[in-house]
Amino acid sequence: MGAWELVASTITEELVKRGHDVTLYASANSVTGAKLRSIAPYPIQEPEGVPLEEKLYTYLHSALVFEEADQYDIIHNNFDGYPLVFSKLVKTPVISTIHGFSSPQIKDLYTRYNNTSYVSISHADRRNCPEMNWVANIYHGINVDNVPFGAESKGYYAYLGRVHPTKGVHLAIQAALKAGVTLKIAAYLNENDKGEMAYWNEQCLPYIDGQQIVYLGEADEKAKYELLSGAIATLCPIQWEEPFGLVFIESMATGTPVIAFGRGSVPEVIQDGIGGLVVEPDNMEAYVDAINRVKSLDRQAVRHYAEENFSIKHMIDQYEETYYKILGIDPNL
Predict the structure, then answer these.
(1) In a domain, 333, yes or no
(2) Secondary structure of residue 277 in the 3-state scheme
C-alpha cells in the first residue's frame, strides 16, 4: 500500500531539489524536505495510536489546503476527488493527478469540477472519462539510480502488491504451480476486510507451503527491492484495467522483467519483449508459457528501458512544464 503517497512524496522532494517553494500537506509524522502542514498526527489507515475516523480527517485535511490557498501559486492534488469540492471557492489553480478511478460515480465529481486541470497516468486510464479537462499524460517516475540492479536472478519468481482478486495473486500462484517454479509473495493483507480475508483463505493460503509458494508478508522499501532484484521475473496476472502499475517500473528498474496480462496501462508501460512479456488477458496457458520464455530477456536492457522511460527527471520535467502552462508562465524568462 502507499503508491499514491510515494508518488506525491517523489514529486515533492524533487521539486524542492529544483528550488521550488513547496508545502506538503500530509500526516504530521511525514518526512519531507518541504514545509509540512498537517491535520492528522499519523496515517489514517495505519494508526500508531487511537484510530482516526477516515471521513472526518479526509475532510479536515482537504479543507486545510484550501483555507490557505491564497499562499500558493498552484495546488497539486494527489488525494482523489475529495479536495475538488473546495476548488470553486478559491482563485488558486488546482491540478490533480488521477491515480485511477476509485468508483464509477467519482466521474460525476471530476466532470463537475472541470474548472480544475487533470493529469492522467496512462492514456488507457483516460478512456474511463474522456470528457474531463485533461491537460497532460505523465507516467510515474522513480530514482532508478537508487534501485539495486540484479544482474543475475536467484532462481525464483516474485509477486509484489496487495492481496486482492483484481491483482491476481491467486493466478500468480496457479501459474507458478503449473510451471513448476518457486514463487515468493510480498503483499499487504488487510485483515480487517472480510472479503479479502475470505479470498486469501480460500484461494491463496491453501497453496502456500513455505517451499515452492512462499508468503513473506508486507515488504518495506529495502525488502521490496531485494525481492525484485533477485527474481527471474515479477508475476502480475492482473484482473482489472490497471491505471499504471508502479510495481511494473520498480521491477524493471532492478532489471527484472514483468509478466502481465495486457489490461489497462500494461501495453503502454511494459514494452513487450523489452521490459517484460505482455500476455493476452486471462490466457493462463500463454501465461505459463511466458514464465518459461522470460528467461531469454536481457536484464540490462530491461533496466535501461526503465531508466529511459520512467526516471524522476523525466516525470518532474513534465510536471514543471504543465504547471507553467496552467499559470501562463514562460520558464525561459
Answers:
(1) no
(2) strand
